[in-house]
Write a structure and sequence with these properties.
Shape: globular
Order of helices and strands: HHHEEHHHH
Distance between the termini: 51 Å
Number of helices: 7
Radius of gyration: 16 Å
Length: 190
């Protein structure tokens, strides 16, 4: 087992556990995690996921800044839903990006699983932006990403990371439920 992968996975559990609680303190753990995972994915020839970590680093910094400025609701940041046109646009954009990136990776690299890897990357980008914007739909995308990622990482013998994404799946489900409750309570109090 790769010790860097293990440390990154532990940081990931802390990161997402704090996101579920809507705590701004998730971001330092997330920043450390993505820096370590860039190396893990490079070694596994999952180049889309490796590049994704650079994106995550930038969005983690933005998210930290955005969440630090957000209104608080019962010990965490306020959250909201997108409208249907926004949901459709995010899904279409993520799908187009995923197919395009997968095609590039399949043609120009020795990527191990170019389309599955690119799909994880594309929908993770959308989910990460939606999380930074504090939109509840981010959890639905994370659930889909986590399901696909578990299978991909098992196929690449990244068992610790597959386990991490299984934990992420549970946490994403809890996050969706928790953020929905928070939004309902805030809407009821308004």
């Amino acid at each position: 087992m790769n010790p860097v992968e293990i440390i990154a996975a532990l940081l990931g559990v802390i990161n997402v556990s704090l996101i579920v609680r809507r705590s701004v303190w998730n971001y330092p753990f997330g920043i450390a995690m993505v820096c370590l995972y860039a190396f893990v994915f490079y070694e596994a020839r999952l180049y889309s996921d490796m590049l994704l970590q650079g994106f995550f680093l930038i969005v983690q910094i933005y998210g930290w800044w955005n969440w630090a400025r957000a209104d608080e609701v019962r010990g965490g940041v306020a959250v909201s839903w997108l409208f249907w046109p926004g949901r459709a646009a995010w899904i279409a954009g993520a799908a187009i990006f995923s197919v395009s990136l997968g095609s590039v990776m399949a043609r120009f690299t020795d990527a191990a699983a170019p389309f599955a890897d690119a799909t994880i990357a594309g929908f993770s980008i959308a989910a990460q932006f939606l999380m930074a914007f504090r939109r509840i739909e981010n959890w639905v995308l994370w659930i889909a990403v986590d399901v696909l990622a578990v299978g991909l990482f098992i196929s690449r013998e990244l068992y610790v990371t597959a386990g991490l994404y299984a934990v992420f799946l549970v946490l994403a489900t809890a996050g969706l439920i928790g953020w929905m409750r928070t939004h309902r309570r805030a809407a009821g109090a308004a």
